[in-house]
Design a protein that fits this description.
single chain; alpha/beta; eight-stranded mixed sheet; 6 helices; about 25% helix
């Protein structure tokens, strides 16, 4: 779906204290953006309208969160949801940042000098055509890029059967170990799950939500 340009989006974001306009300047110092730089750092790649981050970040003030997306038109909606969520709880948004970034070029903003304790990928574009599959956020080349800075787990959630099953091979090729997987997340217990508008829509359509947790395999 093509997103229409909204000229007011960037100015509104630039006035936001937790918006990062030039993430490439944060390489090696993402933790320093927060009042508690020693806290765990969780990163959502492709945050869209902010349905997930606006629930997860306020629920875990002990964790620092960064949410990234390629479009300011998406990020401005995430920004508003975050503001509403924190205001309702009478909390300050000290533990969250949102940043404009093409996830396919994640190496421009993150490298081996960084440390993310968890990565979230929620309902990313499945890119079903063969010629486009390399653009998947779970493709092997992407997973190799994340591996440079991921020190914990990657949590992946989707409604798309083909993307989910083909991602198993991507994780293996990139040197990850899948430690948990399910083809019906809502039938599981003991897994924290923040239900977004997308997820509710898919569930209402009768689609099962697929979910896995993977870890990079390291020799050191």
């Amino acid at each position: 779906m093509r997103i229409r340009h909204k000229p007011w989006a960037k100015p509104e974001l630039e006035a936001c204290p937790f918006y990062i306009n030039e993430p490439q300047n944060c390489i090696g110092k993402w933790n320093e953006l927060f009042s508690n730089p020693s806290a765990p750092l969780y990163v959502e790649l492709g945050c869209g309208k902010g349905g997930f981050i606006s629930q997860a970040a306020p629920a875990h003030p002990e964790v620092n969160f960064i949410a990234m997306d390629i479009k300011n038109e998406m990020l401005v909606l995430a920004k508003r949801k975050l503001e509403n969520a924190y205001n309702e709880l009478e909390m300050s948004a000290d533990n969250v940042r949102i940043a404009i970034q093409n996830i396919e070029r994640i190496e421009l903003a993150w490298n081996e000098n960084d440390r993310a304790d968890r990565i979230y990928i929620n309902f990313c574009n499945p890119w079903p055509k063969k010629k486009h599959k390399k653009r998947r956020l779970t493709h092997t080349r992407q997973l190799l890029a994340y591996k440079k800075f991921l020190r914990g787990q990657l949590w992946f959630k989707t409604d798309d059967d083909e993307l989910f099953e083909e991602s198993f091979e991507y994780f293996e090729e990139a040197g990850y170990r899948i430690v948990f997987r399910t083809f019906d997340l809502h039938s599981e217990s003991g897994i924290e799950n923040f239900v977004t508008e997308h997820e509710k829509m898919f569930t209402d359509e009768g689609k099962k939500i697929k979910f896995l947790i993977a870890e990079p395999i390291r020799e050191d």
